[in-house]
Amino acid sequence: AFVSLPLQSKMGKGALLTPSVPLSMLIVASLSLLLAHPTSAAITPFAGGKLFADGKACTLCENAVNKAMEVMEANKTANIAEDVLIATCLIAGNMIHPGLDYAVCDGMVREFGSEVLFVLSKRLLNATETCSYFAMCPHVNVTHGHALYEEWADRIDAEMDKMDPIHPRVGKCPASAASSFVHISDAHVDPLYKEGADADCGEPLCCRKGTGEGANKAGPWGHYSCDATIEMASAVMDAASTHAPDFVLYTGDSPPHDDWQVGEGMTFEEAEIDQLNGSSRIAELFENSFYSRGIPVFPSVGNHEEFPVDQFPGPPDNTPLMSTLVKLWSDFLPPSTLATISKGGYYTTTVEETVQYMQAKMGEKAWAQAKKRQGKVTSPVSSLRVIAVNTMYCDALNFYLIKGVPDPAGQLAWLEQTLAEAEKNNEDVIIFGHIPPGNGGCLPTYARVLNALYQRYAHSIVAQVYGHTHKDEIELMWSRYTSDGKVPPSAHPQGSVFIGASITTYTDINPSYRLVHYCTQPVVEGEGEDIRMIDYEQHAVNLTEANLHPDTSPAFSRLYSFRDAYSLPSLAPTSIAQLTAKIREDETTARAYLYHYRAGSAPVDSCDEDCRLKYACEANSTLITSYSECEGKPSKVKSIRQYIKDFVDRLC
């Protein structure tokens, strides 16, 4: 079949693969492409392991990788390699999805093939390690800096063992100190969205120019199967700005889910620019809705910001994206942040420093006009420090991490130093980024160090805020995890993690944003409940209703208050623990949680015992390994294929 399959490629339409280039040319690589991109409905079944259920995968894979390495070391043309990848994708894809479109395979290979070929050509892994990495052979230790990370986490654990308990700064919040901030995530604006286009076009992303028309048409404000319109993203931000928040956290992912089409007809460099344009569009919306009103905006990097998607190298190879982010973010952020952004896409600053920078940059007259537009001439000056972490350095789909370079861009060392300084200065801190540490998309080895740092400095950390899943979720951080990522009996709730729902409606979710009420200057009164996070409200628009009124701006309303919906005293870790127990034990609570999970897009009629266990376990930890233990399933730390399967399960 591989010899006779016609290809439309750089070799020319209808060209044939010759017997001298067998299927051994990177079947594992093409399968990895299929595994690695769960955003494609045509591709996700590979993550379920249906293709190689007969156990013959390991021998086939090792032979393929060894042959691939020989071919590349002999300087064979990359065009042939890409053609074989496309052929493999089509044949394997059609085993499960007859009629899989050529354009999907061609686009995926064109975008991601170079990264897989790089890994194999540099022999970063041998054949056995490569096949283990893609779960086609028995597990071997592919480290991702595993030894260093284990030593790092163990050192922090030992340090905590010697410390006296340190309690959060708790007490009462004076009315004058109560304020709010906004959390927005995952815009995924599609510039090619077209009203009336087919929403069931058979490709991974529809509702676009060129997808034709069908019975299921894209609406004027969006569609539940497609990415967001620029108009809807603008409406979300305008609605959020009416609350006159102290600041905005944006947890990344601006471009659309057109992974297989990015850069079509372009050079690699042109495709990078095209992808970065997605970030530019969203930066402009933030400037119009918030910055122009004197409201600070704190952005972070998502996995879709880079081209190819998820493929995020460390310095100096990350220069194109970092240079663009410095240009985009320099309007929002003080100069003190730009060096670490340029190095690795992470930074820290305080709300107060950022307000002072904005005021000086705008000038007295423009600043007064901005505050007038905001409708809040004076407001409490928050003492909060924000720390933006670049979670691409724990992204399980980032092939560059196969190099095993420990602590890419030095982020973990910087983070530890930054938290130590915040502790010394008695500062309250909010950590934010894209991929939550407990999500299957974050490598557990890296996540364990993150958790150890957050546990050590938990008394300084008000909350952790993330996006990525497109869902409204929570995670509970425990005071300690064992070396194999489990929760020991002696552990207690120690950190609250809040995951915000998305602007994009992809898939089956209403556009929304979060208004968080917090205390800018809490009065310290010894031990007790941490009240620095007071409550949050999720605000959403019913997309079905909005599409009935194409000429009227969508009406956003409060979907729920966290404390009121779940009858909780606060947003402290002890309250999160109460909620995870309620989800597991009470179907009414579980149904409410799942209704909010998709921002009220559809009623939830039932949630049986298995359903309740799944969502309670997801919420009950910030390490994927302890989630697996909670569900009573084998640990998902063994291979990237298992990370991807878990990621798919949670994303879809």
Question: Could you characterize what this model shows?
Answer:
It is globular, with a radius of gyration of 24 Å. Helix 13 (411-424) links the parallel strand 8 (385-388) and strand 9. The chain has 21 helices and 16 strands. A six-stranded mixed sheet has the order 6-5-4-13-15-16. A six-stranded mixed sheet has the order 7-8-9-10-12-11, sandwiched between helices. Helix 1 (27-36) packs across helix 4 (102-121), helix 3 (78-96) crosses helix 4 (102-121) and helix 17 (573-585) packs antiparallel against helix 19 (609-619). Helix content is 39%, strand content 11%. It is of the alpha/beta class and 652 residues long. It has helices spanning 27-36, 57-73, 78-96, 102-121, 127-133, 146-161, 230-241, 268-289, 319-329, 338-344, 351-362, 364-374, 411-424, 444-456, 543-547, 562-566, 573-585, 587-597, 609-619, 624-631, 640-651; strands at 6-7, 15-16, 171-172, 178-184, 248-250, 297-299, 347-350, 385-388, 429-432, 461-466, 473-478, 493-499, 512-519, 523-524, 533-540, 557-561.
Largest beta sheet: strand ordering: 6-5-4-13-15-16
Backbone CA Rg:
24 Å
How would you classify the helix and strand content by structural class?
alpha/beta
Largest β sheet strand count, sense and barrel closure: 6 strands, mixed
Strand share of the residues? 5-15%
Estimate the helix proportion, in percent: 25-40%
Number of alpha- plus pi-helical segments: 21
**Could you tell me the number of beta strands?**
16
Give the overall silhouette: globular
Uncertain residue ranges: 1-54, 634-652
Ends apart, CA distance between termini: 33 Å
Mean pLDDT: 79
